[in-house]
Amino acid sequence: MTIREDQVKALANETRIEVLRLLDDPSAHFSMQESADPVAVGVCVLLLAEHFSVSQPTMSRHIELLKRAGFIIAKRQQKWTYCSRNEAALTDYAAWLKSSLNIKSI
Amino acid sequence: MTIREDQVKALANETRIEVLRLLDDPSAHFSMQESADPVAVGVCVLLLAEHFSVSQPTMSRHIELLKRAGFIIAKRQQKWTYCSRNEAALTDYAAWLKSSLNIKSI
DNA sequence: TTGACATATAGCGTATTTGCTATTTAACTA
DNA sequence: TAGTTAAATAGCAAATACGCTATATGTCAA
């Protein structure tokens, strides 16, 4: 599995796309998180699981795949794992897709 | 299945990405096609299958998925089905991905 | 040290994807 | 009409993906 395959597969799932979307503006849905500032630090896995009404292990797996693709950064702090977007990786992927497929202009 | 899901799934496969890449410059690999000009008309399914060393039915299905995503246009002429890129759909998808994920700039 | 909470991992069942071969359909040609 | 070629479809097997529950691990507080 190349990184590009990982990235392409990571986006082949509505939940994971929506996670990336939510993490673009964590304050909109996760301002109730008290252990850490969702904007500055990230959103913990359990809050994401609850938001999507999936089990904690299921969300953990989604996060793992997004992490492997490089799209999110997960930092462990105390007992929480805080997730935030890796803007550089997202920009890079979009640029790769554009040039790789030779998409005219966006 | 929404069109976006179809598109996202269509790109979740290396062969299909490569098909789109090849169809951007058909003359580079398919100039031997005699029944129709590969640039003007498109590339037939069997030539694509041979290029990837997959069976004709397998390539036929890849084409079907790319067609459903709107990424390629397949026009039947005599006994051949000629495939060409749908630039508008590719551009539209890239734009959607960019704005949907709020990717900064490409 | 025990208990709790958040996360990660293991293991399982189901659904989907992807390849194949065999067959059918469509278009042509001798 | 019979045979040939290109593509599509049906049906099957293997691999992957994705959800769950149960359990292990890590962190902390009483």
Structure characterization notes:
Two copies of one chain form a homodimer. Chain A has 106 residues and is α+β, with helices and mostly antiparallel strands. The first copy, chain A, has a single domain (3-94), classed as Orthogonal Bundle (Arc Repressor Mutant, subunit A). Helices cover 53% and strands 13% of the residues of chain A. Chain A has helices at residues 3-10, 14-22, 27-30, 45-52, 56-68, 87-100, and strands spanning 43-44, 72-77, 80-85. Chain A has a three-stranded antiparallel β-sheet. In chain A, strand 2 (72-77) and strand 3 form a beta hairpin. In chain A, helix 1 crosses helix 5 (56-68) and helix 4 crosses helix 5. The longest helix of chain A has 14 residues, at 87-100. The radius of gyration of chain A is 14 Å and the shape is globular. The mean pLDDT of chain A is 96. The interface between A and B is medium-sized, with 25 and 25 residues.
